[in-house]
Amino acid sequence: MIKKCLILFLGYTMLFTGCGSVPVTGRKQLNLVSNSEVLTLSLQQYDEFIKSAPISTDKANTALVQKVGRNIANAVETYLKNNGYADQVKDYSWEFNLVKSADVNAFCMPGGKIVVYEGILPYTQNETGLAVVLGHEVAHAVAKHANERMSNQMATQYGTAAVGAALGGTSAVTQQVAAAALGLGAQYGILLPYSRKQELEADQLGLIFMAMAGYDPSAASAFWQRMSQSGSSTPEFMSTHPSDETRIKQIQKDLPEALKYYKGGTSKTGAAKTSEKWSF
User: Fold this and answer.
1) Which CATH number does the domain housing residue 248 bear?
2) Which of 135, 279, 155, 109 is nearest to 207 (CA)?
3) Number of independent structural domains in the chain
4) Residue numbers of the domain that contains 145
5) Beta strand segments in 144-271, E
6) What is the distance of C-alpha 190 from the center of its chain?
7) Which ranges in the chain belong to alpha helices (H)?
8) In a domain, 277, yes or no
9) Residue 29, beta-bridge partner list
C-alpha cells in the first residue's frame, strides 16, 4: 500500500506539473523547480566556493582548462541555436576554473560554472582527455540535471509525507518502521539510480559535445580506464555514480553515434569544424 501511494503520487506529479526534455537525447524529465530559482541558488553556492577555494597557480594548465571549456561551450551553444534551443543559451554564463587540490574530481554548477581539480590532470594527460571531463561537466549543465535531481527529491519528500499522513492512525512504532523502510526504498530505489542514469547521460552527451568541438570522442574509454585506477569501494547500487565497468561499456555503445558529430568536414552543430584532429 505504501509503495502504491508513492507511485501514484509521483505519477500525478508528473502529469500535472512541469515536464521538460533533454537536448540531443530527447529524454523526458521531471521539472518542478524554476530555472531562475536553481540558477540563483547555484550562483550563491558557487561564489562562496570560489572565494574560499585555492585557485591553481599553474598558468599553463589553467589556460588549457579555459581553452577546452570554451571550445566545447561554443560548439554546444551553436548546436542549441541551430536546433531549436536558442532560448536556453541565455541560461549559461560559462566559467572554467582550475583548483589547486590533489582530489581526482571536477564538478559543474547549473548555469555553466565548472571547476576542475588539479588531481584529475594526471588522468586526463592531454587536451583530448581534458575534453572528456569538460564535455561531461558541460553536459550536466545543458541537461539541467541539477534541476531534475531537486525535482525528484521534492517528489520523494512529498510522497513520504503523504504516506506518513496515511499512517496517522497506527502506532508510533509502526510509523517509525514504515518511515525508515520507505526512506531506504526511496533513496536506493529512486534517487540514486536516477543519479546514475544522469551520469551515464552526461557521458553520452559529453562524447557528442567534445566531438562537436573537434575532439576525438574515442579517447573517452582510455580516460575512464585510467580513472578506474583511482578506485572506489562503494557498491554500484549504493552509489550515485555508475561503476567503472558499467561506464566504459556504455561509452563504447554510445561512441558510434558520437563519432557522427566528429567525422566529416561539417559537424551536426551546423558550423564548419575548425580541426579534424588535434595533435599534442
Assistant:
1) 3.40.390
2) 135
3) 1
4) 2-259
5) none
6) 17
7) 2-16, 35-52, 59-82, 121-124, 127-142, 145-166, 172-186, 192-212, 220-227, 244-259
8) no
9) 20
Q: Are 110 and 146 in contact (CB under 8 A)?
A: yes
| Domain-located, residue 187 | yes
DSSP annotation of 234: S
Dump pLDDT digits (tens) for 96-147.
999 999 999 999 988 999 999 999 999 999 999 999 999 999 999 999 988 8
The answer to whether position 278 is within a domain reads no
Higher per-residue confidence, 55 vs 155: 55
* Residue 279 placed within a domain: no
Give pLDDT, residue 263.
66
Rounded CA gap, 23 and 85, in Å? 8
Residue type, position 163, single letter:
V
Q: Indicate the pairing of strand 113-117 with strand 95-99.
A: parallel
Per-residue H/E/C for 172-191: HHHHHHHHHHHHHHHHHHHH
Least confident of 201-210, 227-236, 261-270: 261-270
Active site residues: 137
Where does the pLDDT of residue 187 fall: very low under 50, low under 70, confident under 90, or very high at 90 and above? low
pTM for the model stands at 0.78
